[in-house]
Design brief:
With about 325 residues, the protein is mainly β. The chain is built from three helices and 19 strands. It is about 10% helix and about 40% strand. Strand 5 and strand 6 form a beta hairpin. The longest helix has 14 residues. The two termini are about 45 Å apart.
Length: about 325
């Protein structure tokens, strides 16, 4: 009897990081492309139906379930597109990882690359398993140097902008217009859309929701700490439950109870993954910020639909949660 042997490894959002594998022999026929769905990207459809390039079967299944990829190159030998595959949910095969049949493979995602006249990579488009445009990355240059990397979602709204010269990261809310979080030196003319809490010892904490209205399982909020002083400041970095405390109140002011059992379970899971020392001090330069995103559902369960107000307390450099954020209004919708 064959046993499915799958080594789970940490991967990036797509594919197999490091590319340390030696691909197994490819099936003699290519996997069948997924039929185009409503809203599918025409470019992704063309690539998925073209079926060109060598098929590489991974010897290990990635954390996100990728088992193979197909790289297509342009006439100059540059990577023009990459199709990633997963095992079909309808497959009854129990083959060993690395020897999947063509019938086992369905498209997981498609990545498209574009270049300028100098051969520099200028645009990356990512399509989902239904070949719909999920995200784009545009790279801007000043001479030979990168100056900005602009991330957008499939609707063309900003999600994340990187200043390649300073290393600053600016994260946007669901509208693509309001700044929700900042990491690195705060760019001139940028600030958190919902403001900051009070300054405390040269540090200030600000929070912003990714969307002011969402279901609980989609409720994401950013917590950003900035150095407001003229000197470097120390800031603790640790696991989520070691770093911040939440205060969530309903519209009538009632303090909402947290899900202690789920928090304890999540703590155990995180400590198992991060078994070594997980508290560190990070130095923030003047006007530098450190932003991190969190899920509200990691602290709360079964919140009724309605209006809420969220405030965060965060540790600075010591044990106490001395930094108090601004307060933001949230609307939780029914799932």
């Amino acid at each position: 009897m064959l046993r499915l042997v799958a080594v789970i490894m940490l991967a990036s959002s797509v594919g197999c990081s490091g590319k340390t594998f030696s691909p197994a022999p490819a099936p003699t026929a290519a996997p069948t492309a997924v039929p185009a769905k409503p809203g599918a990207s025409q470019r992704c459809v063309e690539v998925a139906t073209k079926i060109a390039g060598d098929l590489e079967i991974y010897p290990m299944i990635t954390q996100i379930g990728t088992v193979a990829r197909r790289v297509q190159r342009d006439d100059k030998g540059r990577v023009a597109s990459t199709i990633y595959y997963r095992q079909s949910p309808s497959s009854t095969s129990r083959t060993v990882a690395g020897s999947f049949r063509k019938e086992d493979l369905v498209i997981q995602s498609v990545r498209l690359q574009s270049y300028d006249a100098q051969g520099r990579k200028t645009r990356t488009e990512q399509c989902d398993h239904k070949l719909r445009l999920a995200s784009t990355l545009d790279v801007e240059y000043d001479g030979a140097a990168q100056v900005r990397r602009v991330h957008r979602n499939g609707r063309g709204l900003h999600t994340h902008v990187v200043d390649a010269r300073t290393g600053s990261h600016v994260y946007y809310d669901a509208s693509g217009e309001k700044v929700a979080g900042i990491r690195g030196l705060i760019p001139q003319g940028h600030d958190l859309a919902y403001g900051w809490g009070s300054d405390n010892g040269g540090l200030a904490c600000g929070i912003a929701p990714r969307a002011t209205s969402s279901t609980l399982d989609q409720a994401v909020f950013f917590v950003t700490v900035r150095n407001t002083s003229a000197q470097p400041s120390q800031l603790i970095t640790a696991l989520p439950f070691q770093t911040i405390e939440l205060e969530l109140r309903a519209g009538d002011g009632t303090l909402q109870a947290q899900n202690a059992e789920a928090i304890a379970k999540r703590k155990r899971s995180l400590l198992k993954i991060n078994s070594g020392p997980n508290e560190n001090l990070q130095s923030l330069r003047p006007n530098e910020a450190l932003g991190t995103s969190y899920m509200l559902s990691d602290w709360y369960a079964n919140l009724a639909p309605g209006q809420y107000r969220l405030t965060i307390r965060r540790r600075a450099a010591g044990k106490s949660f001395s930094l108090v954020s601004n307060t933001v209004d949230l609307t939780l919708a029914a799932r």
